[in-house]
Amino acid sequence: MPTKSSSQRTGARRRSEIPDSILRQLNCGEIETANLVEGLAIRFDLLLQSVCPDAPDDVLQAISSDDLGITRRMAFVGQWLAENLPAREFDRLRQHPSDTVRGWAAYQLPHLNNRSVATLLKKVRPLADDRHFGVREWAWLAIRPQLANNLYESLNQFEPWVVNSSENIRRFAVESLRPCGVWCSHITALKESLEQAMPLLEPVRADPSKYVQDSVSNWLSDAAKSQASWVETLLNRWDRESKSPATERITRRVRQRMAKRK
Predict the structure, then answer these.
(1) Which of 225, 185, 220 is nearest to 71 (CA)?
(2) Residue 29 domain flag
(3) Which is deepest, 10, 15, 102, 261, by most CB within 10 Å?
């Protein structure tokens, strides 16, 4: 019988502490991970076999080692799935019990003939609002290159996202276009012209969700690495115009990080 859902479990702090029964269910795609430690412990080859029993040995071998790195392995599997399964299989995978498999679904998207940013965002939206923290991270990482290559359209398409009722959707929009980002390439065109992102940032400067606030402060901390004076000017204006505790928390966090770099 499957164990509790990830939200009801406390994940192990080390791979060696993961119970065998939990690891078996993770590798079979029966349950979600409870934390990053569990996610890193999953055998991708076993999990892919549970999803695609006919997956060839060379593919299984390529993803069986940690040497490739978790992000590159996620992208590798996503592309392979896109190229070897019918496009309609995306909907099955994005609803899979395994959060890792749902992450693979996100990495399928750039390879499924999504010619426009609008189409891409429509497809990724359920994953952007997924119940699992890991899926939400994989979702923006997976499509970020295509968003960056179409920066103007992406910024326009995200305008309704930053006023959405879901904090996950609002946060996704901000996180997707961080100037530097985490585990991903920088967006040079954005770093050089930060004012382009004001329609993305202004609606969330007093966001009630700490999840979104943290993303906004991370965005501005990234931006300050290349344009500190621009960020400081923005923070000063927000201090004057918005007396919200949320805004104060955002600006304080950014200034603290800026101060550490001096």
Answers:
(1) 185
(2) no
(3) 102
